[in-house]
Write a structure and sequence with these properties.
two-stranded antiparallel ribbon; 3% strand; 245 residues; 10 helices; 2 strands; mainly alpha
Length: 245
């Protein structure tokens, strides 16, 4: 792949990501005017709908977990240029997410509904705060590196792709995984929780907790005692005052 082609490939993968993630915000929040949301559409039989939704969530989780592991990357980059490895991960993540949004089966039975307009508005706003934490967290740790743009841009300029550096800016000083915390807030803060939304929130939260375990194992393998010290000092997912120095 030429450097220019790799750059265009990375840009297209990133643009697709932006479209998918922005649509996801409205999908989960049930915004009116969207072609499909988490609760829209005619419901089908309950058990087949649950099975389909679990399969879609499993595809998304497996793709994310497997392709993010160091061992897979070492094997994968024997066939995919290092410069576009991250962009390829982003592309496959996009496809898994789009499949989930497209084929999600609604389960509209209401688990809870907040009747108070101010409280309902507050929960909707809290969900947006969660998404804000997600996006802020990506920029704190290098948004463009995370989504493959830095790699393809450096490759275009014939610069060496640098190894990741460990740093803990702002939110990362009070919680080790603010990005995941933002997702949990965004998924659970809703004025109306349906069966389908609850299924989505439970499974994704379980996946997030499992992904943290795998990710932290990789971080220890790369950064060693530096990351162990960070684990001992800063809470994993619940913001708490730092421990020790």
């Amino acid at each position: 792949m030429s450097r220019a082609a790799a750059f265009v490939y990375g840009i297209l993968a990133y643009v697709m990501f932006l479209g998918a993630i922005l649509y996801s915000i409205g999908f989960i929040a049930n915004w009116t005017g969207l072609p499909k949301t988490i609760d829209s559409g005619g419901p089908g039989p309950v058990m087949p709908s649950i099975a389909i939704d679990l399969i879609l969530l499993a595809i998304f989780a497996i793709q994310h977990s497997v392709m993010a592991r160091r061992g897979f990357k070492a094997w994968w980059t024997r066939y995919v240029p290092v410069a576009v490895e991250r962009s390829t991960y982003v592309l496959f993540s996009n496809l898994a997410l789009i499949l989930l949004l497209w084929k999600w089966q609604p389960l509209p039975g209401v688990v809870w509904r907040v009747e108070s307009p101010p409280l309902a508005l507050g929960l909707a706003a809290l969900s947006l705060v969660g998404w804000g934490v997600v996006f802020l967290s990506t920029f704190l740790i290098n948004h463009f590196d995370l989504f493959g743009l830095k790699q393809v841009f450096d490759n275009l300029r014939e610069l060496r792709i640098e190894d990741p550096q460990f740093h803990t800016p702002f939110l990362y000083k009070i919680v080790r995984h603010p990005l995941y915390l933002g997702f949990i807030i965004a998924f659970w803060a809703t004025p109306q929780m349906t069966v389908g939304h609850l299924l989505f929130a439970i499974v994704t939260t379980g996946y997030i907790l499992g992904a943290i375990m795998l990710e932290e194992r990789d971080m220890v393998a790369v950064f060693g005692q530096t990351y162990r010290n960070y684990q001992a000092r800063v809470s994993m997912i619940v913001p708490l005052p730092p421990r020790g120095k």
